[in-house]
């Protein structure tokens, strides 16, 4: 007879094992704590937080420049396998960042935010 406690223990270890085996991103990318989020936000002051998302609207000269920015960010997004939710309206581009797989903000969102800031700074001069 297996006790509830043992059963729970087995369930947890099975979940963890599967997660590691499958390379589950919940294991690879733990969500940040509130304190960590507050700390990281200070390094990307142009970004606001909307629940589980980091949000910034970038403004460029025109549509072509906006697309140039999006294409640069897309290359980085692909290389780190972390993709922004993107809204493009003529010369304005809004990025919403979150780690969908983890259900919250992770270090990857802040990395992509900082990289996007750098691209925008370069394009805007
Ligand atoms: C299967 C694929 O690796 C995952 O779905 C990746 C792709 N890009 C992603 N991008 C973002 N922003 N969050 C994710 O959780 C995520 N997961």
From TrEMBL:
This is Putative pterin-4-alpha-carbinolamine dehydratase. It catalyses: (4aS,6R)-4a-hydroxy-L-erythro-5,6,7,8-tetrahydrobiopterin = (6R)-L-erythro-6,7-dihydrobiopterin + H2O. GO terms for molecular function: 4-alpha-hydroxytetrahydrobiopterin dehydratase activity. The lineage of its organism: Bacteria, Bacillati, Armatimonadota, Armatimonadia, Capsulimonadales. GO terms for biological process: tetrahydrobiopterin biosynthetic process. Its EC number is 4.2.1.96. Belongs to the pterin-4-alpha-carbinolamine dehydratase family. The keyword Transcription does not apply. It is an enzyme of class 4 (lyase). It holds the Pfam family Pterin_4a. The keyword Cytoplasm does not apply. Keywords: Lyase. It comes from Capsulimonas corticalis. It comes from the Bacteria.
